[in-house]
């Protein structure tokens, strides 16, 4: 406003002074508002800063605070769900409230609470400023609401008699009830902690002797009730070790899944978040009754490996069609079986035609014992793969090129859909042109979605690895700026960047958040697999 008034000064005459006064008054008013401890709201979310933060803590028993950055895409994506959750909690007169802090403007608060990425959500309980709890729920409206509700009220419902216990156990598909002789004991308190975190299942608690008898229990036990597979699963509390919260959470997650999952839009998130180390997949055409019958042996084998292997049925002509390329398959390959190690995406193919439970158990055990080699994908090499400036590698040609002891080989591992890979493609082609006549330097690339390597796992795109000449099968990951000049310095210096004096630049308002767009070109901007 002041700048525009200055530009229009000659035409405004004496009114210029009045405009400047108004601008100054507005500025002073804004400063007074920032310095005040008044708490304003935006869509039922408390707008917090360093001058009203203490007041907010004193006035609200449960306060979930989002530390955000205005430019952060994840924060922008969360915003509608966050405001909706705030509105729902406000409408039900919950003691839980939601607030937000612009961590790029309120640097004192960001530093106090060690905010290094956005969004970061922390829960403040009873005004305790020194030990906020990290938010561990889902980043959607219902996830936030349920997480806060569990902390606002009792995390488990007290069940007094067999009628209330029976009604509670049958109220939903999954219900957890803890039976404890002493509800004030350590085991019961640990159970309440698990209940507060596991918000997608209702939790009940019982201590009445008649309930122990009704459910066939004699000692402290946590029971999971399901309307599928086995009706009741018991997890007895170890009298010596007590109840381990992490172990109980793990067991509840494992046993809350069906023994055999069907891969579809409703279950995919459950399947990939299950934290079960291996997935056994049965690919079949569900329109074929003959193939559908193969599920019997598949399910019969599943119980043996519960918690270690998750059994999943994939319809090759349905929702599962989109994942076939990941396995190098087409619908014509069904029925077939694959086992996947989730930590490195290694795939193992069951070669025999038998789909009996015995054959499936034998195959899985052999993989777990390390007796089966992974099934590696490889595309066919293009006819001119080695005549281009950038050599095109595939799984079956990688070894002979990358580990040629007479060559220094610089390889880009990419995904065709990766935007960062597409952005750096011209630089990589230019690098290939620059070194195409160097006999001891090879610039290459490999589509890591269509080719797999036994001893190298690619976790993000693009990934750049340098394989120096000489014995020893050495490999160096390139982690610097992705431009031609920096690539060249790296190559000319034998696979490392020369040490240069640091350049200090000051960027006002720059933050340490993970989603800083100013770091484009670093490893932090990779598209993850």
TrEMBL record:
Domain Thioredoxin span(s) in chain numbering: 3-153, 367-496
GO terms under biological process: protein folding; response to endoplasmic reticulum stress
CDD domains, per database record: PDI_a_family, PDI_a_PDI_a'_C, PDI_b'_family, PDI_b_family
Keywords: Chaperone, Disulfide bond, Endoplasmic reticulum, Isomerase, Redox-active center, Repeat, Signal
Record EC number: 5.3.4.1
Entry's Gene Ontology cellular component terms: endoplasmic reticulum lumen
Superkingdom of the source species: Eukaryota
Listed Pfam families: Thioredoxin, Thioredoxin_6
Family: Belongs to the protein disulfide isomerase family.
InterPro entries in the record: Prot_disulphide_isomerase (IPR005792), Thioredoxin-like_sf (IPR036249), Thioredoxin_CS (IPR017937), Thioredoxin_domain (IPR013766)
Annotated region described as Disordered, given as residue ranges: 498-529
Keyword presence, RNA-binding: no
Keyword Chaperone: yes
Location in the cell: Endoplasmic reticulum lumen
Molecular function terms, GO-annotated: protein disulfide isomerase activity
Catalytic activity: Catalyzes the rearrangement of -S-S- bonds in proteins
Cysteine disulfide links: 72-75, 418-421
Lineage: Eukaryota, Metazoa, Chordata, Craniata, Vertebrata
Name of the protein in its database record: protein disulfide-isomerase
């Amino acid at each position: 406003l002041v700048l525009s008034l200055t530009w229009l000064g000659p035409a405004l005459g004496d009114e210029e002074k009045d405009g400047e006064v108004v601008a100054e008054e507005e500025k002073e008013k804004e400063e007074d508002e920032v310095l005040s401890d008044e708490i304003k709201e935006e869509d039922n979310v408390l707008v917090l800063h360093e001058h009203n933060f203490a007041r907010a803590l004193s006035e609200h028993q449960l306060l979930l605070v989002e530390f955000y950055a205005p430019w952060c895409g994840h924060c922008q994506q969360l915003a509608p769900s966050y405001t909706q959750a705030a509105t729902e909690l406000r409408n039900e007169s919950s003691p839980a409230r939601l607030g937000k802090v612009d961590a790029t403007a309120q640097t004192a608060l960001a530093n106090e609470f060690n905010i290094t990425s956005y969004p970061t959500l922390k829960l403040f309980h009873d005004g305790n400023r020194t030990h906020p709890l990290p938010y561990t729920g889902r980043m959607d409206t219902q996830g936030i609401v349920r997480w806060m509700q569990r902390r606002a009220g009792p995390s488990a419902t007290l069940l007094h008699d067999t009628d209330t216990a029976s009604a509670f156990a049958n109220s939903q598909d999954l219900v957890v009830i803890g039976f404890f002789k002493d509800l004030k004991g350590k085991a019961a308190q640990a159970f309440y902690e698990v209940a507060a975190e596991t918000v997608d299942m209702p939790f009940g608690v019982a201590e009445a002797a008649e309930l122990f008898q009704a459910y066939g229990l004699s000692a402290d036990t946590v029971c999971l009730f399901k309307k599928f597979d086995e009706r009741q699963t018991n997890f007895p509390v170890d009298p010596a070790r007590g109840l381990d919260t992490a172990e109980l959470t793990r067991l509840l997650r494992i046993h809350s899944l069906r023994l055999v999952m069907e891969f579809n839009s409703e279950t995919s998130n459950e399947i990939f978040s299950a934290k079960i180390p291996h997935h056994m997949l049965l690919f079949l055409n569900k329109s074929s009754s003959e193939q559908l019958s193969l599920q019997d042996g598949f399910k019969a084998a599943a119980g043996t490996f519960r918690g270690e292997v998750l059994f999943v049925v994939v319809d090759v002509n349905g929702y599962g069609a989109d994942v076939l390329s990941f396995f190098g398959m087409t619908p014509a390959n069904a029925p077939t079986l694959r086992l996947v190690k989730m930590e490195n995406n290694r795939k193992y193919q069951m070669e025999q035609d038998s789909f009996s439970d015995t054959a499936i158990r034998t195959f899985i055990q052999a993989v777990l014992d390390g007796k089966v080699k992974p099934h590696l994908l490889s595309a066919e090499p293009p006819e001119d793969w080695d005549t281009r400036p950038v050599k095109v590698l595939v799984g079956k040609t990688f070894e002979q090129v990358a580990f040629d002891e007479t060559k220094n080989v610089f390889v880009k591992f990419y995904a065709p859909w990766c935007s960062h890979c597409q952005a750096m493609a011209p630089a990589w082609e230019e690098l290939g042109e620059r070194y195409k006549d160097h006999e001891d330097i090879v610039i290459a690339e490999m589509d890591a979605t269509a080719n797999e390597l036994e001893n190298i796992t690619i976790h993000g795109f693009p990934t750049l690895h340098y394989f120096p000449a000489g014995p020893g099968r050495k490999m160096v990951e390139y982690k610097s700026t992705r431009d031609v000049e920096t690539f060249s310095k790296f190559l000319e210096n034998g696979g490392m960047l020369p040490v240069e004096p640091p350049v200090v630049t000051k960027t006002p308002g720059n933050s340490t958040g993970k989603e800083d767009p100013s770091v484009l070109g670093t490893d932090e901007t990779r598209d993850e697999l």
